[in-house]
Amino acid sequence: MRLAILSIHSSPMGRAGSKDTGGMSTYLRSLSSALGRKGHQVDLYTRRPNSGRERVENLEANVRLIYPGDGLAELDKNHLFSHCPAVADSIDRFSRLEKINYDFIYSHYWLSGISGRLLKKRWNKPHLIMFHTLARAKNELCPGEKEPQLRLETEAELARDCDLVVTAAESEKRRILNYYNLSIKKTALIPCGIERSVFHPINEKCRLDSKLHKGAQASGKTILAVGRIEPVKGFELLIEAVSLLPSEDDFKVVIIGGEGSGRAPLAALKDKVFDLGLSDRVFFTGVVEHSCLPFYYNAADITVIPSYYESFGLVALESIACGTPVIASPVGGVPELVGQNNAFGCLVKGRDPVSWAAAIRKLYTKSKPIPHTALETGLTPYSWPDAAEKLELALSSL
């Protein structure tokens, strides 16, 4: 099987947590790798980092990263819409020159979907799409979000026109079925995986060394938050909640992530930290390399995810895999990850800072690393080889 996977607005090799780069990049790298190991040929198409001719990088056996010569490197994603036909042209031209005949087109995010839909018509091949986030959901769930009508209408058209919509969480699948009145046969639920060789608990001495290395007090509690600094992540709720914790509590808050939609959200968050007198408690690391994240998760006592909306919630999975419980909004796939008996943390409904403060204090007061035996059972459904197999099964029905 040969797949053309499109990630037009964001490179799969970008730094997680930087602008336009997050869980989607992790998904693309890891799923492509799992498919390649199963013998499938995968070509990942994305914008090249600077203008010029086509360039091809062999990432590993059977997996290539291809930069079409589209000349769009410097454009912000909000200005890409009108250029999507040119992107499709460049991909089509490359495939013809290379004499490649793809079996499937798999688009990620709505902008890639536009190019993918055009290629579906030219190549007469099935087109899959994974939206990762939905404009309608962001507008409904996150105050201050105002995704344009163009995106709203285009996502609805893409959902109807494609052959299959892939989601990573049951809640997102239900949302898409409801929004676009699709047949359930037109959707596939494929949960994200986790690289257990990377994200795993480390022994107690290393855990302590990690805590010291990351600037947290060994005797105190470390509260971690991970994600791009943008309104949908809801980090302002975390700041308001920790401001209500008893002053005698020995804790620090570490927030990992770069600027998402611009500098304003980060500036506003830092202003809130200052106004609430938390400058000696809350620390912003900026972007951290994905390979370093396990050390932060292991150094933390809890990870807090106060998002208004997540299509899956990969941060929760990464934290749990490192043995660190989570406190989170009931969004995306997080309820399934936390478990019916709150084995891996707890969910907080609503956005009352008092309730969040109580949940945070209760969990970090009694917090212990999640036992290995519980992890082995709880994480079984979340592996990239399983995700690749589920994708194979979904494709076999097209």
Short descriptors:
Rossmann fold; 8-stranded mixed β-sheet; 15 helices; 6-stranded parallel β-sheet; 398 residues; alpha/beta
Description:
The protein has an 8-stranded mixed sheet with strand order 3-4-2-1-5-6-7-8, sandwiched between helices. The chain has a 6-stranded parallel sheet with strand order 11-10-9-12-13-14, with helices on both faces. It is α/β, with parallel strands linked by helices and 398 residues long. The chain has helices spanning 23-37, 84-97, 110-123, 135-141, 149-161, 170-180, 204-213, 235-242, 263-275, 293-299, 314-321, 334-338, 353-366, 372-378, 384-396; strands at residues 2-7, 41-46, 55-60, 63-67, 104-108, 127-130, 164-167, 187-189, 221-226, 251-256, 282-286, 302-305, 326-328, 345-347. The chain is 40% helix and 17% strand. It has 2 domains: 2-193 and 383-396, Glycogen Phosphorylase B (Rossmann fold, 3-Layer(aba) Sandwich); 204-378, Glycogen Phosphorylase B (Rossmann fold), CATH 3.40.50.2000. Helix 3 runs parallel beside helix 5 (149-161), helix 7 (204-213) packs across helix 10 and helix 8 crosses helix 13. The mean pLDDT is 89. It has 15 helices and 14 strands. 47% of the residues are buried. The radius of gyration is 21 Å and the shape is globular. Strand 12, helix 11 and strand 13 (326-328) form a beta-alpha-beta unit.
Percent in strands: 15-25%
- Largest sheet properties: 8 strands, mixed
Helix count, DSSP H or I runs of 4 or more residues: 15
Taken in chain order, the helices and strands follow as EHEEEHEHEHHEHEHEHEHEHEHEHEHHH
Give the name of the CATH superfamily of the largest domain. Glycogen Phosphorylase B
Query: Given the C-alpha coordinates, what overall shape results?
Result: globular
In the residues, how many domains can be counted? 2
**How is the largest sheet built, in terms of strand order?**
3-4-2-1-5-6-7-8
Spans of at least 5 consecutive residues with low confidence: none
- How far apart the termini lie comes to 13 Å
Mean pLDDT level? 89
Helix content: 25-40%
CATH topology of the largest domain, by name, is Rossmann fold
* Secondary-structure class: alpha/beta
Radius of gyration: 21 Å
Question: Quick one: how many beta strands?
Answer: 14
Per CATH, which architecture of the largest domain?
A: 3-Layer(aba) Sandwich
CATH class of the largest domain: Alpha Beta
